Amino acid sequence: MLAEFWADGPNSETPPGHWHALANQVADHPQTVKRIGGVGPVVDALEWDVKTYFALSAATHDAACAAWSLKRYYEGVRPITLIRYMGSKGQSSDPLGPSYHPEGLPLEAGVVEVITSSTASVGGRHHGVGSVGDIVVYSWPGEPANPATQTSNVRWIKARDWVPYQRKTFNTPAFPGYVSGHSTFSRAAAEVLAAITGSSFFPGGLGTFTANANSYLVFERGPSQNVALQWATYFDAADQAGQSRLWGGIHVQEDDFTGRTVGSQTGIQAWILANKYWDASIIQESISPMFSFEPGNQVKVQWECRRGLYYKIQSSPDLLNWSDASFSSRAANTAAAWLGTMPSTTGHFYRVFFSPTSQ
User: Fold this and answer.
1) Other CB atoms within 10 A of residue 99 CB
2) What predicted TM-score, i.e. pTM, was given to this entire model?
3) pLDDT surpassing 70 at residue 345
4) How many CB atoms lie within 10 A of CB 118?
5) Which CATH class is domain 283-355?
6) 18: nearest Cα among 186, 229, 173, 180
7) 3-class state of residue 336 by DSSP
8) Structure confidence by residue, pLDDT tens digits, 232-253
9) CATH number of 2-75+174-273
């Protein structure tokens, strides 16, 4: 149930969209008092929505950048690769036992076992599953032929055929696991929702979702009865989103916990930056440009910038009279550079000028 609720795979609102949907529910809740940060005057619905979406979208965007940078750097393996590879090698628990291999799966009674002549016989728990010596796992066998009317009960299957609890057309994402995107997105979003509402708790003290019996699940028929999900805080929901990827067989624990940490840092920083745009303190920040002399009597100026603000280079022969050396342009990235020709006169100065509008 939880694996499917938080799956957010193809043809869905995706994990960031899921949290925007939760933000909509918060905004529409009758007990939500719309004070930015939980303090100050009550704002109208438009201001609340604009600032919520601004901060939440920025946080989940930055969470994606952080998570996918780590994914490409570490190239963490997914459970489907681990289980199938190790299961095809054998078991690594008993060097004197059958099918031993140091790179095999650890044995655990009732979960990971080796098929023996006894368990493979008629009436044995591994009968018809595979051959003697195969490594088998007690798991969900995959989507049934008709998910709308059928279920797939857990049973013994060969480890090399293991699949996560997902659609057979999208059983695992085609990119590295470490860190979990769901964990990173969700924690970042939770930080923003807690910050903008001034409370870590859902309005009224409880966030809820009810999955109706035999109509909600898509991977198979179910649930067998109505299931109500509940979260006291935004962080509870974020934790559950990350954990759902473990239970669904998409991630391992290390992916989840590190993702939560990265998401927390991302969400907090996004919230701090969003406030600087709202209170205009963003234009009070100082710039520390770096200057270098280039061949051909040229000078290069480099500086860090804030997306959305306008920047231009000004020059002066005496620090009193300044003139534009470049056109004003809106920053689309967090760093910029300008290259210009030095005047023939000596003692020339340059500065970076910025403002919220083009001028």
Assistant:
1) 20
2) 0.91
3) no
4) 10
5) mainly beta
6) 186
7) strand
8) 999 999 999 999 999 999 999 9
9) 1.10.606.20
